[in-house]
Amino acid sequence: MAVKAATNGNRIKWIKTAISLVVAGLVWVIPSNVAYLIAQNRDVLLGRYSLGHFTIALLLIPIAAASLYLTWVNEKNEKERIFKVVAVTASILLSLIVVDIAVRLITRPKRYVEEKTYFHRPANSVQTGTSQDIPEEAFLYPRTPPGYPDIQYTLTTDKRGFRNKSDLEQYDIVVLGDSFAEGSRVTDEDAWPVLIAGKSKQTVYNLGMSAGHPGTYLETLKKFGPELSPKTVICLLYEGNDFRDSNYEKEDSLGHNIEDYIKRSPVRRSIEHFLLRCFASKRPAPCPDSPKNASKWFETTGKTLSAVSWLPVAVPQGPTGKRYTFKVKRLMEHFVTEEAFLKTEGAKKSFAALREIKKICSDGKMRLIIAYAPDKPHLIVPLIKETVPAEQLRAFMALRERKLPPADELLDTLLRRLDVQESAVRGFCRAESIEFLSLTEPLRKGIAQGTQTYFTYDQHWTPLGHEIVAETISQYIAKPLRP
């Protein structure tokens, strides 16, 4: 009986060992979807894994080692073994928590100051730096031609923590919006609200704040609108993220607070940066700059990534064309019907916020203008439909959604749906008697003519794009109000 029990015990040990090794090994054997990671502009480690995948694979190594230790060391000391594993694990976690708290206390001031219902930057600050239009991730497209030239920028905030250099008691125009209103990646003088002030000879106060959405626009206007007493309020809506459900997720829940705390952990960020620095895949130099070289690069890396090989795409086609990229997720957000868009929580709550903004403006006798800012795929897809094969565009979209119609049908459907979100917002404004100004055609015209209105590797407007926006809005506000 004792021999049989020992045999069964050994069998169980080997089963536990096999399970531990198989689980730990499979995570390394099964790669991430590299093409999708590239299409989403995410890092690729060792040419095979996403950052999350690679992190889990690393964590499974000590877990498997602990499992083997508990399985094979002398059974008489089982409680002692378990205590040692628990003690070591607890010590490591406690040390990380202590270090994390200490680093949070001594690190530089926060990028944003969060109030109860809105946020802003630190007041009376000046940030300077260089904005480079380059891919942030090490492993991206097979060709990475130069983007927009480097920009030496200055970002100045006023006593309220918003991007303004003037300090008046009252302003003619107040601007609401996110990073497209604040002026991400451009210097103070090139942001379109500043340009409008020069063109219209009116005073303009910029309440735009990166990462904002209609809910925060409303709260910001409630806070500062009365004291600024503007005649006109321009609310810039960016279709790329202003209507997402995630903007309105409950922020006071325990789960959200824990997730937010972990995301902001300096220890977590340091570990991620270390992994990226050591293991992120890089293309061999020199960087391919032609289709021929790109094909060779694919061969040498063992990757066949035709779904992303057409990016960055040139518009207009030819050596004088400017290059553009966009994420597959952003393109797929246009592949929805108007009915589906209007049913989303993001759309419902954003429209509700805009109604309140309208009421505040009406009560204060302020003119409200909704300026609609399109994202890159909205503008670019119609301009490349003849140069990028429909099959290749479908392969790009299939990285995120498998159930797609045939290529030609897909392209036709996509072209019809590109304007769905803008059309819905236009219809809302018409029903609510809100002035609506689309920036789509002026920006698309600029791209078609070879003006680089958006950065190549970033979603925001270049100084040239800000100039087009400022000119379009200035001409609009100069027109007399319609009865």
Layout of helices and strands:
Layout: H1 2-29, H2 34-39, H3 51-72, H4 78-106, E1 113-114, E2 119-120, E3 126-131, E4 151-156, E5 173-176, H5 179-182, H6 192-200, E6 204-206, H7 214-228, E7 232-238, H8 254-263, H9 266-279, H10 291-301, E8 313-315, E9 322-324, H11 328-332, H12 338-343, H13 345-363, E10 367-373, H14 376-384, H15 390-397, H16 407-417, H17 420-431, E11 435-438, H18 440-448, H19 463-478
Parallel strand pairs: 5-6, 5-7, 7-10, 10-11
Antiparallel strand pairs: 1-2, 3-4, 8-9
Helix pairs in contact: 1-3, 6-19, 7-13, 14-18, 15-16
What does this structure look like?
- By secondary structure, the chain is of the alpha/beta class.
- The protein has helices at residues 2-29, 34-39, 51-72, 78-106, 179-182, 192-200, 214-228, 254-263, 266-279, 291-301, 328-332, 338-343, 345-363, 376-384, 390-397, 407-417, 420-431, 440-448, 463-478; strands spanning 113-114, 119-120, 126-131, 151-156, 173-176, 204-206, 232-238, 313-315, 322-324, 367-373, 435-438.
- It has a domain at 123-247 and 328-478: SGNH hydrolase (Rossmann fold), CATH 3.40.50.1110.
- The protein is built from 19 helices and eleven strands.
- The strands form four sheets. The chain has a five-stranded parallel sheet, sandwiched between helices.
- Helix 1 (2-29) runs antiparallel to helix 3 (51-72) and helix 7 (214-228) runs parallel beside helix 13 (345-363).
- Estimate the mean pLDDT confidence: 86
Kindly identify the CATH topology of the domain at 123-247 and 328-478: Rossmann fold
Count of DSSP-assigned helices: 19
Biggest sheet strand order reads 6-5-7-10-11
Name the beta content range: 5-15%
The coarse overall form would be globular
Largest sheet: 5 strands, parallel
Q: Classify the helix fraction into a percent range.
A: 40-55%
CATH superfamily of the domain at 123-247 and 328-478: SGNH hydrolase
What separation lies between the terminal Cα atoms? 99 Å
What is the CATH first-level class name of the domain at 123-247 and 328-478?
Alpha Beta
CATH architecture of the domain at 123-247 and 328-478: 3-Layer(aba) Sandwich
Radius of gyration (CA) equals: 27 Å
What is the strand tally?
Answer: 11
Order of helices and strands: HHHHEEEEEHHEHEHHHEEHHHEHHHHEHH
